[in-house]
């Protein structure tokens, strides 16, 4: 059966939890088109370092969500000018050609020509408007992605610029691409007609729809909602990496080299050009076990030195 599920929530943790729940409850013959939007959010891939991919200080200042998804790939920015899609089915029924045909037909309603760039991106006018990622687990499969129609690129440029921490990492660094809003090519594109054309195209390609259902927090709460908003998931799945935090005091420069595992600091080395002896053991004691946060580390250094 072919189903459309539309989330009426804009919380990324709710929407990602619902996506995972739909994945693991899909029946053998079902194909689900799940449509969802987030408030301003940076969503990082399963194996990425948030400190490498985005400006965490700016996210905090602007009250922008940070979320981690279960699929791989790069960091992306969502806001309400973006519509997310997910094709959910059993792996035996997955058909990337049909999924891309749905997207192509939907966008063609707006008389916008699109092209494919590898497996992960869709382009219009030579610029990226849609990035994709895939997830498989045993018999389960999904393909999800973004459709940027009216994204605020002011935030996009700032949130995906990492802070100036010096890093060495084994994580996957996102490739920054030239991007475009579909609305630049057709000003008549709206959220509602984009949804409508996606649903129509889904029915054209997959056949008659069994149901179109809207879900919100009042009607349903996904079981993993709290798991997605848990800092241990957001930061704790980070690949191991090294960070050098520098703090210049009136006495000189202090450098703290940090080894981070699962988002927590587990080893510290302290360097300095200060003439006086530093209380290195006290610094280590206060820092080890902390979640990696540049401002917290700098405040500890200011208190101790």
TrEMBL record:
Keywords: ATP-binding, Ligase, Nucleotide-binding. The keyword Membrane does not apply. It holds the Pfam family LplA-B_cat. Transmembrane segments: none annotated. GO terms for cellular component: cytoplasm. Pathway: Protein modification; protein lipoylation via exogenous pathway; protein N(6)-(lipoyl)lysine from lipoate: step 1/2; Protein modification; protein lipoylation via exogenous pathway; protein N(6)-(lipoyl)lysine from lipoate: step 2/2. This is lipoate--protein ligase. It comes from Holtiella tumoricola. It catalyses: L-lysyl-[lipoyl-carrier protein] + (R)-lipoate + ATP = N(6)-[(R)-lipoyl]-L-lysyl-[lipoyl-carrier protein] + AMP + diphosphate + H(+). Residues 27-210 form the BPL/LPL catalytic domain. Its EC number is 6.3.1.20. GO terms for biological process: protein lipoylation. The keyword Transcription does not apply. GO terms for molecular function: ATP binding; lipoate-protein ligase activity; lipoyltransferase activity.
